[in-house]
Fold:
Amino acid sequence: MKSVFLAAALASALMASAAEAAPSKFFDNLSGSWSGSGRAYVTKYGDISANCRVAINGTETNVAMKGSCGMLVFRQALGLSLKNAGGDKYVGTYTGSKTGPAKLEGTLRGDRLVMTIRWGGLVNGDRTAQMVLERTGPNSFAQVVNDTVEGKKRSTSNFTFRRASTQASASGY
Structure:
């Protein structure tokens, strides 16, 4: 479950970061409250549905995200910090995983931010996974985490996030 919620949290936070050299539309207008829904893979249960709520605060080069994801009565806290490492490169830390802090490193490619997650311990039998964040509109973005599970590549989380408020984007994305 930890990798599922990590992915959701990372998606929210990463989308909120703004880079000096990155296309501004990718990072425009992301501070605020977001809600997400989707599916996550949990070893004991298989694919489950989950919902998330996160708050994103950011500047031109740094971003922070706090929130939680869960289902029914179970909730997992989420935390993330990211910064631009120059050009289209990003680095950061995810906190909230039972394996400890996870390191993030990735590259912005147009409307997609492709990140490598380096877990603090074993998750699905290894210590790495890939996250892809995609800006899908001024008030939405998608997040997918891909990992190897039992020798096969698969999506371990797939969430769509929407702005929690009805406030329209001033940037026009």
